[in-house]
Amino acid sequence: AQSVTQLDSQVPVFEEAPVELRCNYSSSVSVYLFWYVQYPNQGLQLLLKYLSGSTLVESINGFEAEFNKSQTSFHLRKPSVHISDTAEYFCAVSGDDYKLSFGAGTTVTVRA
Amino acid sequence: DAGVIQSPRHEVTEMGQEVTLRCKPISGHNSLFWYRQTMMRGLELLIYFNNNVPIDDSGMPEDRFSAKMPNASFSTLKIQPSEPRDSAVYFCASRARGWGETQYFGPGTRLLVL
């Protein structure tokens, strides 16, 4: 079984500053890794995912995450955040059964 | 595409009443998932279906919860009788067949049991 730990529950950050959200997972088998974003009163939307190949994956809105197998991590970064990035971010892992196990979430609050 | 559709979006009911949540997955998707989100427990997978067949219902909290998928375009999650501790946001998600495919989430049903 897989499990996910998101090390920060709340991350306040100023607009245009960088942000990093940490995610560690535990699994004894090959994994697929995901970051989802949830805006207030909405469902979850996929931000980016790692399946195989290049360990650095990027989203269309400037986020990137790097899969580090030796450290079992999949941290999410953005070099310059906007007010509109205020949301809750979930890291998730799945194996070949396609079930997703989610972390507890990290709330990012961007301030002007 | 309309995305995953859930109804109702909000439901307020009294303890002991039956509650039925509905989900229409994205057309062509063959897997469907029901999740529950609470502050205390985060996101929990309740049950998932593959080709309309329940594959894993180990997350269903107790016998008061039941889920069905009579066809590829419709699923229900029923709680009978409901209790205040069932108050949560319930999400439905669907996924296409294939390696690495993404789960797409609906907007959720916010349930409050008084």
Level of helix content of chain B? under 10%
Largest sheet of chain A: 6 strands, mixed
Measured by DSSP, the beta-strand proportion of chain A falls in: over 45%
Stretches with pLDDT under 50, minimum 5 residues of chain B: none
Strand segment count of chain A: 12
Write the H/E string of chain B, N to C. Answer: EEEEEEEEEEE
- What is the CA-based Rg of chain A, rounded? 13 Å
Largest interface: A-B, 21 and 21 residues
What is the mean predicted local confidence, pLDDT of chain A?
Answer: 91
Strand proportion of chain B: over 45%
The helix/strand class of chain B is mainly beta
**How many strands, which pairing sense, and closed or not: the largest β-sheet of chain B?**
7 strands, mixed
Q: Please give the alpha-carbon distance between the first and last residues of chain A.
A: 41 Å
User: Number of helical runs of chain B?
Assistant: 0
Query: Which quaternary structure do these chains form?
Result: heterodimer
- For the termini of chain B, the CA-CA separation is 36 Å
Radius of gyration of chain B: 13 Å
Explained architecture:
The complex is a heterodimer of chains A (112) and B (114). With 112 residues, chain A is mainly beta. In chain A, 0% of the residues lie in helices and 54% in strands. In chain A, strands 2, 5, 6, 10, 11 and 12 form a 6-stranded mixed β-sheet that branches. In chain A, strands 3-9-8-7 form a 4-stranded antiparallel β-sheet, with no helix packed on it. Chain A has a two-stranded antiparallel ribbon with strand order 1-4. In chain A, β7 (56-58) and β8 form a beta hairpin. The mean pLDDT of chain A is 91. Chain B contains no helices and 11 strands. Chain B has strands at residues 5-7, 10-13, 19-24, 31-38, 42-50, 53-56, 65-71, 74-79, 88-95, 103-105, 109-113. In chain B, strands 2, 4, 5, 6, 9, 10 and 11 form a 7-stranded mixed β-sheet that branches. Chain B is globular. Chain B starts with a strand and ends with a strand. The model of chain B has no long low-confidence stretch (mean pLDDT 94). The chains are: A mainly beta (112), B mainly beta (114). At the A-B interface, β5, β6 and β11 of A face β5, β9 and β10 of B.
